[in-house]
Records
---
Amino acid sequence: MHHAANEVDHEPESVIQRRQRIGLVLLTIFSLAYGGFIGLCTFAYTWISETSVAGVPLTVAYGVGLIAMSIAVAMIYGLMNREAK
Amino acid sequence: MVYETSSIAIAVFLLMVAGTVGLSFYLGARARSSHGYFAAGGSIHWFVNGIAFAGDYLSAASFLGICGMIAFYGFDGFLYSIGYLAGWLVALLVIAEPLKRLGKYTFADALASKFQSDGIRTAAGFSTLIVSLVYLVPQMVGAGALVKPLLGLAYWQGVTLVGSIVVVIVVTAGMVSTTYVQFLKGGLLVLFSLILTVLVMMRGVEVHPEEARSHPQRITVGADGAKYVDGVRLGLKESERNVAPVGRVLEMADGSTKTGPLGPVGYLRAISGSRIELSSPAKKSIEDGRPVVEYAPRVVDGRAMMAPGNLPTFQGIRRAEVYPKLDFVSLMLALFAGTASLPHILIRYYTVRDQASARKSTIVGIGAIGFFYLLTLYIGFGAMVSGALDPSDSNMAAPLLAKSFSELLFAAVSAIAFTTVLGTVSGLIVAAGGSVAHDFVAGMLRIQLNDSQMIRVAKIASIIIGGLAILAGLAFEGMNVSYLVGWAFAIAASANLPALLMLLFWKGTTKQGIIAGVVVGTLASLLWIAVCPEMFKTMYGLDPARAWVLFSQPGLVTIPLSFAVIVVVSLASGERIEDRRE
């Protein structure tokens, strides 16, 4: 499982910047979803507590959805950068 | 509640500890260079490092704390799961690769890299030490609370035992052994959580109204100093009485008494449609000069337990006042921004070969950690209706749920819970010890050290930090572990994240701006915590209304403050990053 040495890839600045842009776009999208959830729990408490999705309270569905979204965003980022390389 | 000492639990526990220490000795002996000791020679495979991220990150607060919170207060515990995981996207999307590209051993390396500044190195080393120490406090408090029921040890003995074992691990080991211990621990934690979740779903939901309690349980202390439950001496003998467990379904929405095995959605629906018997939080009073603790039965609606605001510290979101709501928002912001600023997480990026490995290991980490947090929902709600909850200790919810299935599972889950504490504490001490050697001794004091001297300094620092952690764990006994974790995240997010982000994304950033941002972020968040309502109530025994600030979680104020300080100081001073490029 061990590799030979500790290395730093000397990637072109354009590749680094492209990756940073992808990262920022994905982070912005996720932040909006996360912020929306916190906002609803805090300022629309009654509505989010009483609404259901497929018989499951929206709070739980949204929370589970955020965890699933985290994993999905991570995988998308990995795939996009594999293609870029 | 008094727990029967389980010989299987002790045997499995000793086996796990012996295995951990043995692995540390074996692999530690192979790390002779400082690069090997501090960064595993950059030789760890990205998949191993990704699971080790989970081992480092999933602390006692994550496993025992969250499951316990969900078991007693429902959805609020899951809010912590969501916040803890969300922060990993910040780590992946903006921090992981630049940190690996710019640094070598510590977080300070990366921050100081563009200016080659000892000032930045010192400030970042200072924040690393503060964050590590503050984050060590809840780990040690959790350790003391955990060992007490599992091994029958006193709180102080539990804290001292954990602190001592961890110091032995760190001093004999290095990042290679720490990584493999974290890899095993992370893997076992996810595996056994999955086993527990499958068992919960296979059991489904059963109605047991006949076991419901109608009156509170009163724990008193007699003239002989012994504890009594409803007037009968507390204990496990026939003439004695134990605290009765709580957590059972009284009625289901469709009137059935047993669901049989359920799927993930069906299980949540069944809980949502149930009426459940739980226990109210401990009501403490003094009668005839002696302490009395009362646990009153509480019947709750499953649906209401899937709404936020049941946890005492989150009840503010149901109120009309703004400040309690801001306290909640501030905590969730700190969890989001703090993960990517924790020193023991950041140094793990130096153990892999390159930026691509850093990225891939973070993705594996997010997968493992995210999957685990999904499982906490089922373990927590499963414990809520298991009929096995200890009303006096929410941290025991997951181990007791395991015990309701089998003694062996209880032993395994308890031993894994204990190693979660060992793993996180050792990661923090390694990070802090490395920071002392690199950032303070070699960086600030400019003392030239060879490899073996560097490792020796780090080991001596680790022993001192381990000692401080034990003392802090003793001083903060009884403090809310989740609150302490929230504070550690807030300090990390205020001190480290703004500086790192501004360095990466704003060319106008200056050396002075970064130093000011790190120092102000650290001190402002510490000061805020020192004068907040929670500290007034819990530590000072004063009226929280007299606190100097209006809510207890500092992140909402101190994170933007740190950004603002970096911008203002950078605009008013020195050489910018863009100037250096010209």
---
Amino acid sequence: MLSGTIRRALAAIICAIASLSLCVVHAAETQTTEYALKNGLRIIVREDHRAPTVVSMLWYKAGSMDEVNGKTGVAHVLEHMMFKGTETVPAEQFSKIIANVGGRVNAFTARDATGYHEQLHKSQLPLAFRLEADRMANLKLSRDEFDKEIKVVMEERRLRTDDRPQALVHEQLMATALVAHPYRTPTVGWMSDLENMTWQDAREWYDHWYAPNNAILVVVGDVVPREVFALAEKYFGGIKKKVLPERKPQNEPPQLGTRRITVKAPAELPSLVMGYRAPILHDVDKDWEPYALEMLAGVLDGHDAARLNSDLVRRDKIAQAAGAGYESTQRGPGMFVLTGVPAVGKTIPELEQALRREVARIVSDGVSEEELKRASAQVVSSQVFQRDSIYFQAMLIGSLEIGGYSYEAMDIMIEKLKQVTAAQVQEVAKKYLIDETLTVAVLDPQPLEGRKPAAEPAAGVRHVQ
Amino acid sequence: MCNRLSQAVFAVAMCLLALPALAVLPIAHWQTANGAHVYFVESRGLPMLDVSVDFPAGSAFDTREKSGRASLTLSLLKLGAGGLSEDDIARRMADTGAQFSGRFDSDRAGMSLRSLSSPEELNPAVDVFARVLQHPDFPPGVLEREKGRIVAAIKESDTKPETILSRRFNELAYPNHPYGLRSSGEVATVSTLTRDDLADFYRRYYTSDQAVVAIMGDLDRKQAAALAEKLTADLPRSSAAPSIPDVPQPARAQMSVVPHPATQSHLLTGLPGIKRDDPDYFPLFVGNYILGGGGFESRMTTEVRTKRGLAYSAYSYFAPLLQRGPFVIGLQTRKDQAGAALEVVRATLQDFLANGPSEDELAKAKQNIVGGFPLRIDSNRKILDYLATIGFYHLPLTYIDDFVPRVEKVTLAEIRAAFARRVDPAHMVTVVVAADPAALAAAGVK
């Protein structure tokens, strides 16, 4: 049953059956087609015929934001366990089978979703589907394998968070800025939760969320959509849908004033992160604020000539580095972030004042048409540049879909970004970059010498169910 | 035909079906009027193009006294050139939506431009790129500011276990050789660099006859030729080709333990490996896939991570350079496990050196590398990097065509012999940062 827009589906079919010369005309356009199985699995195919390769990316709408207290990190642990064997494919064989046909396999866990992907020669797509379908339904998940792998995950946390001051600052910032929404917990999980996690916790996560009706399969590459749909039907069609657990919204209560924290860690340079509460995109057609916030981030930090780099680093020499960032499309609450490292001889308070002056200047004077045009030029060119990578295209499509937007929103969003006015940028700066909803995190660098390592919590007693 | 790239890559599939007469990628190669080497592939699939220009001007051309000069020279190119200020350059680039990126390692220094191919965007971006490459101003005020930023970044970097690890390793594996110098330079040396230092370095090393121009994307041969001329016509001419001294083998095996408050030990063991044109390149490349290059399929990952849960990442690689670049094995593990992990690494390497891989491992490595070959050239960016590497390291134009047959041809005996020649544990340098000396001693590590 075709559930994508008829127009695009037809266009794709016409392209598929037409002569190759038609492809020349449309070489620079993207053909994206959608299909859904009866068990709820949705498949989105984007054709890119530049090379005989394909990426298959299976997204489960189950990220760390779906976790509950005491079990943080379980989404990511399960991602690791997905390589540990099914009834018919022994542990570690998934990667080996794909590697043996020249494929690359990996996975990622994020706040909003968990994704599994294979990059292969297009002739090997059936193999990727067969293996992914198998582990969607038949994961074995033994205690032995879990006990080994949880140690690997703890090493990953040490590597990526505990020994990285900037990662600690980010972790602490989120845990402070939010009090109710699960975006406050780190995707990798708190170490204590990892130490006390059991194989049954991972099993429960798998049983709850790994279902065709909680997944989206994105395929980008040198493929024919109807063939991909037939393959998906063949391999995934027999998997039963599940009744998914209820998702509680866990909305954040209003923030009633600035929050400030300090993180002490071994480092040389201090750094500053200022996170302001911000809306996210809900209605692609009607909302305008998220687009204006994107352009605000672009004016401040979208390119080398943007304000923060140009004013604070180059002209005033008050910052070693400075940046701004905002994500409009995600499942959870939004945040507009300013970051900076003071130049040598400058202090964190001086840098904070400088960043605040930049904000105040936009609130009082707005931005110029020239600046907007410049920010817009990056939007336009990156639309083309990102199509050089089929992997990146699959990431874009999947993350939009997981966020609750259609892949078709992409084109609309580009147009909306280009339509943002200087007055709108000024208005969102005035409305959202305010002290009431600000959280400030500072890295207070500590000397390496003469310090004991941060004591690791004693190994917890395993919870017995 | 849809476009040149798909046509070209379609040929890969044909090639895999044993029709080696077809060229995988039709690379055009020529020299500009003043001697720059140009490598070009046309691809009409997307309305964009990439162009890179590289020079033998990496950190290997630094001296100990002026360490950091090569890196600083490259980073200042786009901060003032041909009468344009750094802000002018940044604004003009931003107006076109084009992007600069830099490439800097021991051997190479270079910049690349990614731009839309429409003339309204491309022409101004190329104009800026041409000035930046050929008429850098090295403004004194900008230089002083950047020196301050780099010094601060070096100090920050010196607090990180991974930086301390690679620095110490390079000092021990490459004593008295420029490959042992830190690419960013040191606090003491960067502070003393002058505008003349950079201008001299630029004149000596950014020369037209050493320049390698790689072009990939939506333009034809004639346009590519004009582009290459525009980017190189005003480059300095050189008097002699620069060279890097031979790398001696470390006299003996060495172990260095550096304290650090991190929760994990970082471990690196290795030695100078091979040159880019070494005849052992393919046997070592395929053999290393089995030892520690092939992710979950590799022995290192299997022994360290899968069987024992000792680390998130365990790997080995060869980084061939103009002279012998490093061969290393590395991992990170909880402090008290460092000794145990090092023992596993040593035993795994020892077994590999003594017995070599199995027939089955070799067959699977070849299946992966050969079967995965199309993934190596499925984007403009990847092809551009191949063009730049072929040009810089004087690899044959048929390098990409030859890649699959050369991998296919590797034998077990060749892998064993190549590893025996190139990886001798009696000369390997081992560094552990943030180790617990008691844990190392308890594991019997010396």
